């Protein structure tokens, strides 16, 4: 029986189709730990609503809420500004005082953008700073953040916390290159952060590449101000060159190192220390770095599931709605007011940081589908939809649906945590209709639920009850 027939009849499924039930049960997932909603975006009611109002952890699917609200309230062309101020007189190119960098939460200051920012400072005539580098982080007021609190992996880039001045995601690339002449791997840090050291250069071994990171037996000693990567193991020569991305230092000290390195590389002179203070009131900035537009930023957030970028956007909602500082609670208040104004019912929504990397964030499949339907009818429809991963093409679903007919016909956001698997987005079905879909699993066997979630999407695409 075609789904479209069911829609005409006004029917809503309260039970899952037989083969869909079997897909979850075969994965060892009880059906009372599953919530699924499917709705034609042109219709007022869901086609399939299975436990639609159960509050569940959506993992990274929560980013759909953050990015849609941001596109609506901030606008697709919104840009963040990072500004440099002279707190003192500049005489013959020398700043007699501190250089103040004021961050406003830019989610994506890459190395290339940072270099461009430094180049603008130099082009403005700044040749030397004889004071300190001062950082103004007053745009955000954040609780103490432990990057290892979530899962005991403080060096994992996905655990980086938000900051008003977040440079290069606070990430460092450890590069390993085998040197047959010395019998060791040359290990270096990119960018070359002065406060990060790697030692010793690990000896090469003849094993298969395999778990090369485990073979290094790396230990990370990081107090925020400086970090040492201690390598007590070996490096398989068969690996060739390899890279390992890690998050080191705290945000201010990372920004300090990046300034010292790139200002020096651009011919500037600086030997001062690091401090924090606010930019001089009413001053004109020496240089300004503008971010890419929001519509570009949200593509990274949703396609690549970037947690810290989502958190930066979430806080920016509060920053633009009221005087600083922005807090997570203020940001959640902005989201709730928006949903109420737009009459998008998400009554059990709980947002801690807007990224889904949380054990307390909650949403319902029904609420997510209502958000998706509203987004499909909004002025930011194309920017929002194009930020989602395309089945079998890119994003976190680039390697899924490769052998299915739904490849290229679904725009999806996935969510993954221990005990959580989720998927939500749009399916451009074979009948020519566009369906909003949200499916969430919260269960100890959730890691085995990927094929069942994929089946839900395929079921909608094929447009028939099996």
Q: What would a concise description of this structure say?
A:
The protein is α/β, with parallel strands linked by helices. It contains 12 helices and 21 strands.
CATH hierarchy: architecture of the largest domain = 3-Layer(aba) Sandwich
Helicity range: 25-40%
Determine the structural class based on helices, strands and strand pairing.
alpha/beta
Q: Provide the β-strand percentage band.
A: 15-25%
Computed over alpha carbons, the radius of gyration is 25 Å
Gross morphology is: globular
What is the domain total for the residues?
3
Can you characterise this structure?
With 466 residues, this protein is α/β, with parallel strands linked by helices. It has three domains: 244 residues, DD-peptidase/beta-lactamase superfamily (Beta-lactamase, 3-Layer(aba) Sandwich); 100 residues, 3-Layer(bba) Sandwich (D-tyrosyl-trna(Tyr) Deacylase, Chain: A); 91 residues, no CATH class. It is 28% helix and 24% strand. The chain has twelve helices and 21 strands. Strands 3, 4, 5, 6, 15, 16 and 17 form a seven-stranded mixed β-sheet that branches. It has a six-stranded antiparallel β-sheet with strand order 2-1-21-20-19-18, sandwiched between helices. Strand 4, helix 4 and strand 5 form a beta-alpha-beta unit. Helix 3 runs antiparallel to helix 7, helix 3 packs parallel to helix 8 and helix 8 crosses helix 9. It is globular. The chain starts with a helix and ends with a helix. The N terminus is likely disordered.
């Amino acid at each position: 029986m075609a789904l479209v027939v069911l829609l005409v009849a006004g029917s809503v499924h309260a039970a899952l189709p037989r083969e869909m039930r079997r897909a979850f049960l075969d994965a060892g997932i009880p059906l009372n730990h599953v919530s699924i909603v499917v709705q034609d975006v042109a219709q007022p009611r869901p086609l399939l609503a299975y436990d639609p109002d159960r509050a569940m952890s959506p993992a990274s699917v929560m980013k759909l809420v953050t990015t849609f609200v941001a596109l609506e309230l901030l606008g697709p062309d919104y840009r963040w500004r990072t500004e440099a101020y002279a707190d003192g007189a500049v005489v013959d190119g020398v700043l007699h005082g501190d250089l103040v960098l004021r961050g406003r939460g830019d989610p994506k200051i890459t190395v290339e953008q940072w270099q461009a920012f430094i180049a603008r400072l130099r082009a403005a005539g700044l040749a030397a700073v004889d004071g300190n580098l001062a950082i103004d982080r007053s745009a955000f007021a954040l609780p103490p953040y432990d990057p290892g609190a979530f899962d005991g992996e403080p060096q994992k880039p996905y655990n980086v916390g938000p900051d008003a001045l977040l440079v290069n995601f606070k990430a460092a690339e450890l590069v390993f290159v085998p040197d047959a002449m010395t019998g060791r791997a040359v290990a270096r840090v990119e960018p070359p952060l002065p406060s990060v050291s790697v030692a010793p250069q690990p000896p090469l071994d003849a094993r298969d590449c395999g778990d090369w990171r485990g073979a290094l037996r790396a230990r990370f000693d990081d107090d925020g101000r400086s970090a040492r990567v201690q390598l007590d193991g070996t490096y398989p020569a068969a690996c060739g060159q390899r890279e390992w991305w890690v998050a080191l230092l705290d945000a201010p000290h990372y920004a300090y190192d990046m300034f010292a390195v790139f200002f020096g590389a651009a011919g500037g002179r600086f030997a001062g220390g690091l401090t924090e203070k606010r930019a001089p009131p009413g001053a004109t900035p020496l240089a300004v770095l503008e971010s890419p537009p929001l519509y570009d930023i949200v593509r990274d957030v949703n396609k690549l599931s970037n947690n810290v970028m989502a958190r930066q956007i979430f806080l920016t909602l509060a920053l633009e709605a009221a005087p600083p500082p922005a807090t997570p609670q203020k940001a959640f208040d902005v989201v709730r007011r928006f949903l109420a104004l737009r009459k998008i019912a998400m009554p059990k929504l709980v947002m801690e940081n807007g990224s889904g990397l949380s054990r307390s964030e909650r949403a319902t499949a029904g609420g997510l589908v209502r958000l998706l339907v509203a987004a499909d009818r909004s002025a930011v429809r194309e920017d929002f939809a194009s930020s989602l991963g395309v089945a079998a093409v890119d994003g976190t679903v680039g390697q899924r649906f490769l052998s299915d007919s739904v490849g290229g016909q679904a725009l999806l956001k996935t969510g993954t945590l221990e005990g959580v698997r989720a998927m939500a987005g749009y399916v451009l079905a074979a009948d020519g209709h566009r369906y909003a879909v949200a499916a969430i699993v919260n269960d100890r066997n959730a890691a085995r639920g990927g094929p069942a979630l994929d089946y839900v999407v395929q079921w909608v695409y094929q447009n028939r009850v099996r």
